[in-house]
Every structure is written in structure tokens, then in C-alpha cells.
Prior knowledge:
Layout: H1 3-13, H2 17-39, H3 45-61, H4 73-95, H5 103-108, H6 118-129, H7 133-144, H8 149-156, H9 160-179
Amino acid sequence: MSLNDERTISAIKKKEEAAINEVIEKYSKLLWSVSSAVLNNIGSVQDVEECVADTFIYLWEHPDKYDPQRGKLKTWLSIIARTQAINRCREIAKKNTIPLEDVGFIGQLGIVDNIFKEETRQALLAAIKALGETDREILMRRYYYEQKPKEIAIALDMSTKQVDNHLYQTKQKLRAALSN
């Protein structure tokens, strides 16, 4: 841990406002970048702002949770911001259960050609709902929120190849469910 990190954490533990203000000044742009990368095309500017603010609040309330043996303060704050943003994505996804009923979203999957019948649409919705959380989240991010695989990979801490594989396998599962 650098001397600056050590001094900063010590000051925050003593509830010195100057120390937290210094951290906010120093790391706001970085944490904004981390949060907005995860929330890209999903969350609003307010969602990003809240994630950054929540990160600083967490530091203020729990400075003892920072472990200097595991890395720099900058890295720890980035991980907290990323976690806040992922949690915000999940909240947004829970509120927006309507997208699964969105015919446009289903059409973008490229699994069924032309306009399809209501029962086919219902079968596809059931198959999507039966997917695991990760597969469903990747599918929604790609085809509803129109995130690129690289953006999804960053947001979910996966490689782009893993995201591509999930998309491919998920579409295969959905095709199989429709052919039954």
C-alpha cells in the first residue's frame, strides 16, 4: 500500500472530511468510467452517478474493509463501483420484465423467420425464461439493449469469447426448444 493510501484510509477512519473529499476529487472520473461501462445502454446518467456516489459512501462507512495486502485503494474502489453498477443493472432488469414480451426483441434473435404465430412467440418466451440468469442477461444485453459482446464482457467480467460462446449456445437452445 502506498503511503498516500495508508494516510487516506487512516484519515477516513477518523472521519476527516478532507480525506474523503480528496478521494472523490482523485477518483471520480475513474469510477464514472467503470460504472458507465457496465451500465452502457442500460442505465441512465443518474444510475451512473448513484453508483459512483454509493462507492464513496461505502468507503466512508467501511474504510476498514479495504485490505492493503490485496491491492491499491484505486483498484478496490474500482471493484466496488463495478459491483454497484452490476447490482444496478440487475435492479433495472427486474423492473423491466416487459422487454421479454417485446416482439421486436424476439425478432432480433434471428431464430424464427418472418412473422410468427402467437403460440411460437409464447414458446420462445417460455424458453427464454427457462434460461439460466447469465444466459438470459447476456441475451438481453445483446439483443434488447444492443450492447456489443465486448461491452457485455467488460460488464460481466468475462472474455469476449465467453460471451460469444454463451450467445451461440443460448441461440442453439432456443432453436431446439422451438423445434420440439
